[in-house]
Amino acid sequence: MKALSPLITAVDLGEGFPFEARQQIDEGERALTDQHDNNVQRWVYAGAAWFMLQNVAMYRSGSNVHAGQRYNRTYNILVTDWPQLAKIDPATRRNAIWLYEHSKPVLAWLATLPQRDRDRWTHPATLRRHYEKRHPQLFSPKAAATKQRPPRQSRAREARPLGPRSYEDLEAVIAEQTVLIADREREITEKDALLAEQDRTIRQLQSDLAWERSRARQLESVVTLSPDSTPATVKRPDGATVEVMHATARASHEIEPPVIDGQPDYPNWAKQVARRTSKLSALELHWLLADNSAHFDTYERLFPGAGTALENRVMTRIHELEETRNH
Fold first, then answer.
1. 57 near 80, Cβ under 8 Å?
2. Does residue 85 lie in a domain region?
3. Total-model pTM
4. pLDDT (tens digit, 9 = 90+) per residue, 28-85?
5. What is the pLDDT of residues 57-71, one digit of tens each?
6. What is the span of the domain harbouring residue 272?
7. Is position 229 within any domain?
8. How far apart are CA 257 and CA 155, in angstroms?
């Protein structure tokens, strides 16, 4: 891993950048331009560059804090020479500077985490949130005491303007929430794609099942045996014998759905099928399923689950009749 440039603490920033400072900023610009494998290290380089730019802007504007009109104007002029550093939002910039200032303990802690967490926690805001959560001793005593203080009943207070640090804290919270929302939206998108794929699989299986049922009906119930038919023994080309029964055409058992206002009334058609089920033999019920296969499919499409339930009812009746006959 490439080593960071040393932190410049005493340099002449009056007329221009010394070589070391400009080198540090250029490293941050290249880190945001090139897609390195180590995303965390990229943000460390970028944080070092922003840290140096802030120091230069404070010196040239005569400001003691990273805020104010003079400071902002000076910083915006300086950063224009590095477009990748200039386009990052302030909240991410602050978290990256924090990551740079705490890079040694944070990178050591990150190396102890599972690979899954190291792959996910690459943004500086995410790293800061998880690191400070697991290392509360880094908080100031005042902040720690405030966090551990028991909740008090809220009081009506007069609204007061927030200081610069409070504004920065709010922007940091907003940046962290933005990252979390983006992660959640990405998870939702992946789950939606998975559900869509499962729906396509289910529809394909339903289509295959309907085709197999239709094929089975056609093979099982196309013809009927005549009452006086006798088997005839014939030989196949391979010498094996087989008995062939004489078959005759049968009457259709199709039930046409009644028409109401120009449209087929499938609920009434289902009632007719149910009434007919109790009056037919097992073989005739097979013919009923075969001759009305298109109507069963249409009924299922119009009323999901109803067509399958009606077909199962007919099949149950067939099994009852066949068991009775066997006994």
1. no
2. yes
3. 0.41
4. 888 888 755 568 888 888 888 888 888 888 878 777 777 778 888 888 887 888 888 8
5. 887 877 777 777 888
6. 253-326
7. no
8. 72
